[in-house]
Known about the structure:
Adenine-n6-DNA-methyltransferase TaqI, Chain A, domain 2, Helix Hairpins, 3 domains, 25 strands, alpha+beta
Amino acid sequence: MPNNWKKYKLNDIAEIVMGQSPSGDSCTNNPSDGLPLLNGPTEFGYSYPTPVQYTKDSRKKSEVGDLLFCVRGSTTGKMNFSNKVYSIGRGIAAIRGKNSYPTKFVKYLIDMHLPQMLNVTTGSTFPNIGKDDLNNVSVEVPDSNTAIAIAEILSSLDDKIESNLQTNKTLEEMANALYKHWFVDFGPFKDGKFVESELGLIPEGWDIGVLGDLVNFYNGYGFKSGDLLDDNIGDCYHVFKMGHIKKGGGLKSDGTRSFVQKSKCNKLENFILKKGDLLMSMTDMKDKVSILGHTAIMDEDDKYIVNQRVGLLRAKKELGIDYPYLYILSNSVPFLNDLRSRANSGVQVNLSTEGIKNTTVLIAPKIIHEEFNKIVLSLFEKTFENAKENQTLTQTRDYLLPKLISGEVRVKDAEKTVKEMI
Length: 422
């Protein structure tokens, strides 16, 4: 430990406010009904939350800039920042720096000490961290000026990651808007002739088909449980599971972590994922269907291999159709409603291969799909570039964080590295 690092308790450099739930009858989904309410990480984004409830009976609040820290349940330790004043329920603590230590530094300090903090959680099924547990975490920290510099370095990386995520969201919204204009509202084709179909009026010359006309479909491979690893021991594929598919669709790169050695994957070339492959969730829980039928796009080659109960869709392309159209289509409400109507329901809800392939789709003339691809393919390629950059930024942040916090890497050296990156 460098000479200017000193030992403290967390409460020496941070103030901790434990949340308290408002009365249940005061909670609504109406934004005009008081303060936005946070109960846990279901509202969390990468940096900031998106509230879904509101209350006029707020009992504990976060302030702008506070660290929001989950203190209950299986997601204990998840964090976000408070971008406005929130009412915080009992599953959340608001943490803010004090004695000249910035809140962002406290966040990175907690990141480093999180395993130690989780070891003191109480409750086997629903672990909890109490205020005393947080206050008494032992930390070693530099002077506040150095802490400010460390926070600025690390947060510049996080800010760039957040910026890329927002850019990708905007690009996907643009692609969705164009899809709706062309293939739902038929905006460019309104002056032409329309004909009746099982999907309603469609432009003359367009067809109704099934998803199997557009894609080659494969069921994911059923690995033996003994072949799956919790850690990457080298020369492994990441195993793509349903946990990598977001609610509403999209790739969750920090989803389930499971690996398989490449030596165990002989003759499984068809299951090794390529950029542009679509992955579909084929199973969900009956009482809480949230990802059934939704898809994610793979954004890199040869890193993942697909697991069972995930469907792999590859565009046939003969009709001018590529993955952007298929991705937007497969996450649209009409498509999902049709798809899920053929699901087999038990304790779990399951989609069959035939049920997926027989989902009704609209097929425009080849030239229209090709024109659509010319516009939207570049948007998706840009999201892939941003996702790859975010991987590098995340790896750099995770490398620098413990070394800066411990004093192993000098601030000036880290500043130079980060400036070269962003």
